[in-house]
Amino acid sequence: MLENSERYPLQNIVVDDLFSANKLVVALLIAIVMTAVTTVWVTHKTRTLTSEKGELVFEKQALENEYLNLKLEETTQSDNTRIEAIATVKLGMKHIDSEHEVVILE
């Protein structure tokens, strides 16, 4: 059989045994490993997307606040009393009398 100096090829025997007699076990083992890796990957992606969603919600709230501030500023800037005050105080304008009014017709 084998001489004393030779060793049994145990690794080859185990591999041959797994792939010849236990094909179902190997297939199930591969399926389990693939499922575990996929689960870890999906969990990582879910956490990444959840974090990104939180950042986007925060950015949306900041943009909404800025929009509301701009609308308020627009309302304030377009107020007629403010415009009239600037025209009379800074520019020295005054309301025109009807006797000084000139109408140009074409």
TrEMBL record:
Any one of the GO BP annotations: FtsZ-dependent cytokinesis
Regions that span the bilayer: 24-43
Record keywords: Cell cycle, Cell division, Cell inner membrane, Cell membrane, Membrane, Transmembrane, Transmembrane helix
KW RNA-binding (keyword) present: no
GO cellular component: cell division site; plasma membrane
Function: Essential cell division protein. May link together the upstream cell division proteins, which are predominantly cytoplasmic, with the downstream cell division proteins, which are predominantly periplasmic.
Oligomeric form and interacting partners: Part of a complex composed of FtsB, FtsL and FtsQ.
Protein name per its UniProtKB record: Cell division protein FtsL
Upper taxonomic lineage: Bacteria, Pseudomonadati, Pseudomonadota, Gammaproteobacteria, Pasteurellales
